Amino acid sequence: MDFEIPELPFPLRTYGPDGNWSYEDGVLTGWAGARQDRFVTPVGESVEPVSDAPRLLGAPEGDFQLIARVTVGFRAAFDAGVLYAHVGDRAWAKLCLENSPDVPTVCTVVTRGHSDDANSFTVEGRTVWLRVSRTGRALAFHASRDGERWTFVRLFTLGDEQETGAALVGFMTQSPLGEGCVVTYDHLEFRSSWPGDLRDGS
């Protein structure tokens, strides 16, 4: 299903389970169902995701920054609101505000065949600003407590599956252990540029 958000210059489509996505007055809302997640464990032999999670994604052209203030209705460990980038079935990445496991934390997952998992900094409350940026093959994750000063979280590519400029980006919700949660995204912003300096807080 196509989904239009006026702040974004590209259409979005739904992927995975039904996220009950809605948009009104500048606020995007999505729901994760019980035990929905997107993760390919590096432990053991399996390369299959443990589950799947609602995603709302589109394909911007050229350099960009996608920004949103994310608020999560935490109910269980690892409930999260996510900015998500995807180039293949085993090549995708998540920038999350996650209940990890009982303290809200900015964390990242980069999947190249299997997923890794890395925590950044903790957050007071249920809200943080997230930003995903791209130039060429490079992707960068940033987070901010106030939407003004940004903390550099991660710089990476998604491996051989990633072609220059070929990526879906957007939003995801998850509740791996819980019965579901609601996530809102507001202060949505799209910039047709790569950050001038990844580490200076801008």
TrEMBL record:
Residues 138-202 form the NHR domain. InterPro entries: ConA-like_dom_sf, DUF1349, NHR_dom. PANTHER family: REGULATION OF ENOLASE PROTEIN 1. This is DUF1349 domain-containing protein. It comes from Streptomyces pyxinicus. The lineage of its organism: Bacteria, Bacillati, Actinomycetota, Actinomycetes, Kitasatosporales.
